[in-house]
Amino acid sequence: MSQITPVFKREFLGYFRSPVAYVFLIVFLVASVGLAFFIGGFFRNNQASLESFFVFHPWLYLLLVPAAAMRLWAEEKRGGTLELLFTLPLTTTQAVLAKFFAAWLFLVLGLLLTLPMAFTVGWLGDPDWGVIVSGYLGSALLAGACLAVCSLISALTKNQVIAFVLGVIALLVLLFLGWSVFNQLLSGFLSVGAVDFIANLGVIPHFEAIAKGIIDARSLAYFGSLIALALALNVAALDR
Amino acid sequence: MIEVKGLVKTYGNKRAVDGVSFKVNPGDILGFLGPNGAGKSTTMKMITGFIRPDAGSATVAGIDVTRDPVAVKAKIGYLPESAPAYGEMTVLEFLRFIAEIRGFRAKSARDERVERAIARTHLEPVRRQTIETLSKGYKQRVGFAQALLHEPPCLVLDEPTDGLDPNQKNEVRSLIKTMAKDRAVILSTHILEEVDAICTRIILISQGKVVVDETPEAFRARKPGARLDEIFRSLTKGDA
Ligand SMILES: Nc1ncnc2c1ncn2[C@@H]1O[C@H](COP(=O)(O)OP(=O)(O)OP(=O)(O)O)[C@@H](O)[C@H]1O
Ligand SMILES: [Mg+2]
Q1: Is position B105 within any domain?
Q2: In Å, how far from its chain's centre is CA B76?
Q3: Residues of A in contact with B89 (CB under 8 A)
Q4: Residue B109 lies in a domain
Q5: What is the pLDDT of residues B115-130, one digit of tens each?
Q6: Which residues does ligand 1 sit against, CB inside 6 Å?
């Protein structure tokens, strides 16, 4: 456990050693707020909720998470620092966890920068704060799951561009599985049970449940196991 | 201290290392010689636990690298070929990170280690410079500082004087000599005079196999009066 801290710290602060971090955080803020205002009709809805804000998060993460995660392992491989890291006294699991949590904290930081949205809603109306907190929790879990998948992919290549593209493709699959439009398409030739099963493999139904304030054990277990599985494969990919 | 038995590593259909065995005791400075591609770096990567051997074993202080890699890594200071380091960090930040992961968590202990390493490798003028902006020789010194920071019982140095100016070469050689008093040192080099100057033993490998394992005096005595590179050439004729 104690070996995780230095790597975590190095990794998290590492984001701020280059301007990329600030660009990323600004894009995160502008894109998430912009989508809610211009496409989600944040004000037009006349509702004191962040529903039209959170609904876009899966699509936001589709591009932003691979961008934040592509360097995680690919950069270490390309730069030769992987040899340095893996001859220091820590296990592969510790290294994977340290990097994952550092990147997750970075994404959550981006998410927290949108808190003024919540305060605006609170100032204009009388929102259900429980649902808003739950929405942030859901979005953080969604970001974590996407990140774990992209971290695994970054460990498979030394090319950051490839890591980004494959990350987007993998997330696209995870999104499509549970996207209502895609599920409606499927229900044309599959039974309700089968469609339901497929939808629940995707991230969106679980995210939307939590974002609506329904924190059920199934959704939490879904995100927990997706993260655990991706990270276990991440360790295996590096240990080979 | 370091014992290597029948190490084998195959890449595709090429045997990079083909049954290498040797032993290094405290006080020994083992000079690893061989033409480009002979398998020196690959052998070192297996001793330091970066890559897993296909066959054979490497033990450090009686611990098998594949059994307990973390314990072995804690006992080794390793300078990988071309001294990889995190370029966006400053020298000071980087060495502090290494110190923390090497177990010097208290600020005073950490800073004391870092300062000693900086002084020993003459990094004073560049301590606040980012590593990516350093000249090759300074980068090499950072790698050396990182390897000796925790004063490990074993040092594995892959071309430690590569890129250093003549003064620094001498400095590093005498530093290695002092450190070797109660330590086991393995270093690889292409400078034959270096071996003559500091090594207590020579191992020459060619095409993955050990062809010579003897003292520098015995090596010299193979062809009295001849230059070292002539002896080297006659022993490595098989290599392209
Ligand atoms: N990752 C790899 N994939 C394929 N082949 C490799 C890999 N690493 C090393 N090799 C091959 O293994 C052989 C030994 O390489 P190694 O780096 O150990 O040589 P070396 O003795 O350190 O040479 P040099 O003096 O040039 O540093 C070479 O033929 C090299 O091409
Ligand atoms: Mg080499």
Answers
A1: no
A2: 10
A3: 10, 14, 17
A4: no
A5: 999 999 999 999 999 9
A6: B 11, 14, 16, 34, 36-42, 81
User: What is the token pair recorded at B81?
Assistant: 């070929």
Q: For the domain that residue B48 is a member of, what is the CATH number? A: 3.40.50.300
* Antiparallel, parallel or unpaired: β B184-188 and B154-158: parallel
Q: Are B173 and B114 in contact (CB under 8 A)?
A: no
Q: Pairing mode, if any, of strands B63-64 and B76-79?
A: unpaired
* Cβ-proximal residues to A130 (8 Å cutoff; 6+ apart), any chain: A213
The span from the CA of B25 to the CA of B33, in Å, is 18
Residue in B10, B13, B14 to alter for ligand 1 test, most ligand atoms within 8 A of Cβ: B14
Give the integer Cα–Cα distance in Å for B183 and B25.
Answer: 8
User: Facing residues of B47 across strands?
Assistant: none
Q: How many domains does chain B have?
A: 1
**B207 in helix, strand or coil?**
coil
Query: Residue with structure tokens 């290549």?
Result: A157
- Going across the sheet that includes B2-11, the strands are B14-24, B2-11, B55-60, B63-64
The model's pTM: 0.93
Asked, for residue B199, whether it belongs to a domain, the answer is yes
Write down the residue that tokens 């045997």 correspond to: B15
Full domain range(s) for residue B145: 2-86+117-123+134-235
**Residue B156, in any domain of the structure:** yes
Q: What pLDDT, in 10s, does the model give residues B157-199?
A: 999 999 899 998 998 999 899 888 889 999 999 998 888 889 9
Q: What ipTM was estimated for this complex?
A: 0.93
CA of B138 to the centre of ligand 2 (A): 19
Query: Among B35, B29, B19, which Cα is nearest to B235's?
Result: B35
